[in-house]
Amino acid sequence: MVPNFSLRQLGYLVAVADSGSMTAAAEAEHVSQAAISAGINDLERRLGVRLLARHPGHGVSLTEAGLGILADARRVLAAASGVLSQARAPGSDLRGSLTLGCFTTMAPLYIPALYDAFASQHPGLELTVVEGAQEDLRRALMNGTCEIALTYANRLGPGVAMETIRTLRPYVLLAASHALADRESVTLHDLADEPLVQFSLHPSPNDIEELLRHAAVTPKVVHSSPSIEVVRSLVARGLGYSPMLQRWPMNVSLEGLPLACVPLESTVPDYRVVVAWPQNDHLSRRAAAVVSFLRTHATEHPIQAEAG
């Protein structure tokens, strides 16, 4: 059955959800506020549900029904954009827009290549990156804010499809002057009595807690930070150790102090870097191209922390 509402009306709903007001949505859509209001009123009538709660003097908010269809509205608009770009540029050319979610610590290692090499291959595609923690990325995928997300496979929850980009072997970050810095590998028991500097951006604390619990080690957390560079700098100054997944290209802190990356012994589980998307969604040509690029980029730029 052909829907009796328009893509424009769905676009108005998304614009209001993103901006929080009819006025801001009208500016974003380059139409009058009256057009936004009339379009959404008609959409509500055709769907038979109230989508917006109006708060005089305080903007609008989505009702439960509005929140329920928001993600679908975003996906319908993205699919329509894909149809349009394919019609206008059949073959290998990609056009339109794509929003990629990215786990914060991965962004410096993957996003520059996307904005540079990938963008030069596909100049007609507008790429937007949203960084965040694991729960932020899952939420963005489920509500349609992001089409795909680059993150870790663990703790993404149900309803998500994913493709592995690379597999990482956990390691311990130490000051270069540490007594264990020259070891080929260590166990968490080797560091059980030492202070731990914790990276606090989720899901990292849960992952580290799981590793420590598996090793029957009770950590002595002395510092905690959501900034990976703060953690690296504290470790470089000899203030503790930190279990890590993602390997940095250079083993120095921002202050220029040397660091050592010592692999954890093989009984520790590996972790997968993945591109994820809602399980019920069809991967668009744009998204598939990004996945392919990231997979090739990981193959061409291996890191020592990768599991073999």
List keywords for this structure.
308 residues; alpha/beta; five-stranded mixed sheet; three-stranded antiparallel sheet; 9 helices; 12 strands
Task: Give the topology.
Blueprint lengths: L6 H13 L2 H8 L3 H15 L4 E3 L5 E3 L1 H25 L7 E8 L3 H15 L3 E8 L1 H9 L5 E5 L7 E9 L2 E5 L19 E5 L4 H11 L5 E6 L2 H9 L5 E3 L14 E5 L7 E8 L6 H16 L8
Parallel strand pairs: 3-4, 3-5, 8-9
Antiparallel strand pairs: 1-2, 5-12, 6-12, 7-10, 7-11
Report on this structure.
The chain is an alpha/beta fold and 308 residues long. Helices cover 39% and strands 22% of the residues. It contains nine helices and twelve strands. The chain has helices at residues 7-19, 22-29, 33-47, 64-88, 107-121, 134-142, 204-214, 228-236, 285-300; strands spanning 52-54, 60-62, 96-103, 125-132, 148-152, 160-168, 171-175, 195-199, 220-225, 242-244, 259-263, 271-278. It has a five-stranded mixed β-sheet, with helices on both faces. The chain has a three-stranded antiparallel β-sheet with strand order 10-7-11. Strands 1-2 form a two-stranded antiparallel sheet. Strand 1 and strand 2 (60-62) form a beta hairpin. Helix 1 crosses helix 2 and helix 1 (7-19) crosses helix 4 (64-88). The termini are far apart. The model has no long low-confidence stretch (mean pLDDT 87).
